[in-house]
Structures are given as structure tokens and as C-alpha cells.
Amino acid sequence: MSAVASPHPRLLLVGGGGGLVGRALLPTLGPTYAIRSVHRSRAANEGAGVEWVPADVRAVRDWRPLLADVDVVINLAWYRWASPDSFESLSRGLVSLIEAAATAGIRRFVHISVPAAPDRMEQDLPYLRCKRAVDRALVSSGLSYRIVRPTMLFGTGDVLLSVMMRLMRRYPWFPMFGDGEYHVSPVAVTDLAEVIRRETESGSSGTVDLGGPERFRYRDLTDRMFLALGKAPRYWRMSPSTARRLTGLLVSLGSTLLYPYEVDWLVSDMLGLPPYEGLDRPLRRVSPHLEGLAASQAKRIRA
Asked: Beta strand pairing status for 183-184 and 216-217?
């Protein structure tokens, strides 16, 4: 006798669903799951099937009510830049979520982490040191889990490639850190959302790195960006140490384009990750996105 399907969709808890990845993920999961999303500000496309819990993940003291009836937990929450105390408190909040999920018998936990970095950064940088504490807590939790570690993301609303192209359009020179021979493999945020959806249903535990379908030398990627704008590449070359000092100064003045640790990570040549295998369609290439950004920026200028 076949089982009778439940009239109610399974419930999924998302931590940090209000950012770039969350905006792509919630609509991707919506047809399959009812979603309870814990994040500070309401996202524009949450949809009728999303229960928004207006809270900071690091400030939740008791996860038990939020985990009631939950089938899968997905964590997206982390900061690009914050004080060491903020990273420590967010790490404690996420470890608390993992422990509560294990106690509650949650079927699956998918956690978005970050790629490997040079040993010095892994040990000394609060961003990474605290992130790895969460990764280790999940590995040792006894839960069925997947840790997904994507490289450079692109998509609607990204805060890196769109700003880089705006700078290329506006100024005669674009900064190049070192020789530009290090590699990147940009991955579409919509592809990351599909990977997360697939991993929620997988029974395999472990860590998977995620790059896009093309592995570029960094300077080849920036050349393509200039080409999309109809401009010849022109670079202001600087050493990585000079770049760290410059980005540190810009951060002190309020810039969020690039942080000093991201310069170190980029030139370490550890971000050209291999593509994810397992989707039922090809991964999206970055060139159409660049062309779309260039056309959108040109349209705004004409308006």
C-alpha cells in the first residue's frame, strides 16, 4: 500500500535569508517547502509561503520554537566585514543553532561556508577563524549535513562585479593587484541556489567546493569587463601590499567594495575552484551577466 502524501509542504528553516543568496534561494525552494526565514530585514521576493522571523541569528537565545516541525535547516548567515566581537557572537549563535538542530532530530543541515584560504588567514583572521568553528561544530554534530563553499558570486544585486564595472566606466584607470595571473571561477548565485536545493535532498555528508564553469586569470576577467563596456583595458598596477593599505584606507572612509583580507585571498590563487557537477543543466557563464550589467549602466546614464 503506497503512502499518502502530506497535504502540507515540508518546513525549512533558513538563517540569514535576506541577502544576495537568500533572494535567489527563497523562490527556488518555495514550490517544495514552506519556509521560515530568520533575518533582520524583509526581502522583496519572500512570497506568500515564507514566514519571516525578524531577528538576528546571533541574538536568538532559544531555537527550539523556531525548529518546531522543521525538516531541513539552511544557514546563509555571515558577515563580509565586522568587529571580532561580532564574528565571535555570530559563530556562537550558529553553533547554538547546530546543537539545537541535533537535539531536535532535524533531518538535514546545509551550511554555506567559504573556500580555503592561506594558513595565516585561517588562523589570524576573525572572519575565517570563527567561520571554521561553525564548520567544525557541524561536522561533529552527528547531523546529516553538507557544507557548500562557493567562490566569487555574480547575479542581480551583487556588490562586486557591478561596482567594478561602474568604476571602469567612470575612471580612466582600474586597479590591478600584482600581475593579475591568479585565478577566479565566478559562479552564478542562481546556480548556488540550485545546488543548495539539490543538497537539501541529498543524503551525503561532507564539504563541497563550488566554482563556475569557466576558470579565468583575474586580468582576463577584468579585460572582458572592459570589453563589455566598449573600452580598452587600462590598469593602475600596484603591489598586493599597496593594495592592502589602499583598501584599508577606503574601508576607513566607508567603502564596502573590497576589504584588505579579500586582496590577500584573491592574490593567493585559491579562488579558481572547479565547477559543481550534479545539476541537470549547464552552469551559467559570467559573460552574459557582464554584458547585461554594461547595458543596464549605459541605460541609466542615458536616462
From this structure: antiparallel
Question: Residue length, the chain?
Answer: 303
Kindly give the interhelix angle for 218-228 and 287-302, rounded to the nearest 10 degrees: 40
Residue 173: phi and psi, rounded to 5, are: -130, 145
Check if the beta carbon of residue 130 is closer than 8 Å to that of residue 92. Answer: no
Cβ neighbours of residue 196 under 8 Å, at least 6 residues apart?
21, 25, 28, 29, 74, 110, 112, 148
Phi, psi of 183 (to 5 degrees): -115, 155
Where helices occur in the chain by DSSP H, the ranges are 20-29, 64-67, 84-104, 119-124, 126-139, 161-170, 189-201, 218-228, 240-252, 260-267, 287-302
Using the structure block, give the residue that is written with the C-alpha cell 542581480: 156
Give the mean pLDDT of 220-229: 97
Contact 109, 144 (CB under 8 A): yes
Mean pLDDT of 213-219: 98
Q: pLDDT digit string (tens) for 69-128?
A: 999 999 999 999 999 999 999 999 999 999 999 999 999 999 999 999 999 999 999 999
Rounded Cα gap, residues 128 and 58, in angstroms: 17
- Beta-carbon contacts of 32 under 8 Å, excluding residues fewer than 6 positions away, are 9, 10, 197
Over residues 216-231, the mean pLDDT reads 97
98, 141 in Cβ contact below 8 A? yes
Site of grid cell 533582520: 40
Question: Buried (b) or exposed (e) across 259-295, using 16+ Cβ within 10 A?
Answer: bbbbbbbbbeebbbbebbeeeeeebbebeebbeebbe
